[in-house]
Amino acid sequence: MHILVTGAQGQLGYDLCSILREEGHETLGVDRSDFDLTDRVATERFLDASHPDAVIHCAAFTDVDGAEQNPLLCRRVNRDGSAYLAKAAQDCGAKLLYLSTDYVFAGIGEDFYTTQDRPRPLSVYGETKYQGEEATLSLCSRAFVVRTSWVFGRHGRNFVSTMIELARKKREIPVVRDQIGSPTYTRDLSRLIAQMIRTDRYGIYHATNEGICSRAEFAREILRQAGLDAEIRPVWTADYPSPAKRPLNSRMSKQDLEDAGLARLPHWRDALARYLSEIGLLQESALFGKRGER
Q1: Does residue 25 contact residue 197 with C-beta atoms inside 8 Å?
Q2: Which segments in the chain show pLDDT lower than 50?
Q3: What pLDDT sits at residue 118?
Q4: How many Cβ atoms sit within 10 Å of the Cβ of residue 26?
Q5: DSSP string spanning the chain?
Q6: Shortest CA distance to 133 belongs to which of 106, 98, 105, 102?
Q7: Is 125 a catalytic residue?
Q8: 84 and 33 Cβ atoms separated by less than 8 Å
Q9: pTM of the full predicted structure?
């Protein structure tokens, strides 16, 4: 299968290209230097020339707070660029898988959001990602939308690497206690996407590692497994205002994965241990006493 991956230099795109190649797919990873996603003609010409069987769209404007200051660029990338890519994929007969986010939801209450729940984004970033979803599903007849959350991987900055960096500099780190969701390891998500793209079970899916936690609980487990002794100080989101509003509830139901015969991802604690092991920071002693949660 000939697969084109946008955003190939990002943490998910990088691991995805690696996993796809391991599975024997002819994989073309591209970034902004290959073609300008916000240029409709350039996008159409690139896909027409490469003629992929499938496109996995990881590229996005992901600076959540920056999107509030630069909404036009964010819309050009996440909304318009996704629409151009969807139309080009349809024209060349390719499947399309679009990576989306928990930020399409308002994050109210404590229920798990299903794929049937109506999105109500709170931020420019969330709004434009939802617009990208709509463009993908309306312009490409063979399309998947995969919503994920709290992504971490080896190739790029993320919450895990930030916590480790801060713990080496500070004795106390304030982390929000009222944002609840599921961390997601890029290698686990990549394997699921590689499985999904081979099917014709098109539609919307939620895909995260299993289990839920607060940001503060996630931070504590990062430091515990990495053997770092900084203290996590839980704070309320309202006490640390930012340009963009974040959803407090990012719980997402993965029932649609099961219904489509796709495997759920491992627990996030297990995923974190494998990630830390990969980057050489896992403390073996951290694995004992928590096996029941892994």
Answers
A1: no
A2: 288-294
A3: 97
A4: 12
A5: -EEEEESTTSHHHHHHHHHHHHTT-EEEEE-TTT--TT-HHHHHHHHHHH--SEEEE------HHHHHH-HHHHHIIIIIIHHHHHHHHHHTT-EEEEEEEGGGS---SSSPBPTTSPP--SSHHHHHHHHHHHHHHHH-SSEEEEEE-SEE-SSS--HHHHHHHHHTT-SEEEEESS-EE--EEHHHHHHHHHHHTTS---EEEE--EE--EEHHHHHHHHHHHHT--PEEEEE-GGGS--SS---SB--B--HHHHHTT-PPEEEHHHHHHHHHHHTT---GGGGTT-GGG-
A6: 98
A7: yes
A8: no
A9: 0.94
**pLDDT number for residue 243:** 97
pLDDT digits (tens, 9 = 90+) for 103-153: 999 999 999 999 999 999 999 999 999 999 999 999 999 999 999 999 999
**Per the residue annotation, which of 103, 113, 125, 130 is the catalytic one?**
125
Contact 52, 92 (CB under 8 A): yes
All domains of the chain, ordered by start, with CATH? 2-213+241-293 (3.40.50.720)
pLDDT given at position 282 = 86
